[in-house]
Design goal:
With about 250 residues, the protein is of the alpha/beta class. It has 2 domains: about 150 residues, Rossmann fold; about 70 residues, no CATH class. The strands form 2 sheets. A 6-stranded mixed β-sheet has the order 6-7-8-3-9-10, sandwiched between helices. Strands 2-1-4-5 form a 4-stranded antiparallel β-sheet. Strand 4 and strand 5 form a beta hairpin.
Length: about 250
Amino acid sequence: MSIEIKGLSKAYGRKHVLQALDLTIEQGQCYCLLGKNGVGKSTFLNSILDLVKPDEGTISLFGKDYLTSSLDVKQDLGALCEDNPLIEEFTGLEYLHFIAKLYKLPQQEADQRINSLTNYFFTERESLHKNIAGYSTGMKKKVGIVAAILHKPRVLILDEPFTGLDPIAAQLLVQLIRNYSNPNRVVLISSHDLNYVERVATHIGVLNDGQLMYNGTVHQFTMNGESLIDQALFQLLLPHHSAADANIDWMLN
């Protein structure tokens, strides 16, 4: 196994975002976490990244945890957070070389990887010599993705990776995720872009009211391929959607 979570709980005041979650994600899986806004997907991912301290529960990656092997765990992780914090005073290339130094990549290897990944995502390399502060949302997202994958982590966590990307960049990311996934790694994604999720996911988790309503393969979730992921998700979550009884007839005439 690669990620093992037991009894994970987190509350903000009276709101219990995560309630005693148990989950094991095996090597070789591309696990996609789905759910409505505000159900705790980012809190869940940030707990795995040690950015949020859970109230209860344990998290281990490849048999190691933050309590006893914090540095080892973090070296195995690559992450794109939803807010994608970058050092905006740096140029794109300066930032990526900074990340390479953090992971102690040899200079020649860092140069090769940065050149390869930026050529993959950026058609205009001139932009990489400009400060990140002037980048569009999509350009910042691409720099964040490259930074997350640069050191070839065994666990790659992507929070809303497709948001802000144009269709070409999003398709490039789909291919990158497919190529990156292998039996020795795990990719964990949270996304509302179900069209892209359908192209990369091997397993699905649906989070609602602090608990996993579904945890299994994409094949099972879509009833052996008879439904699309968005249809299966709609059928699962609609009974829990409190706005279903709202009367909006006033706007129809």
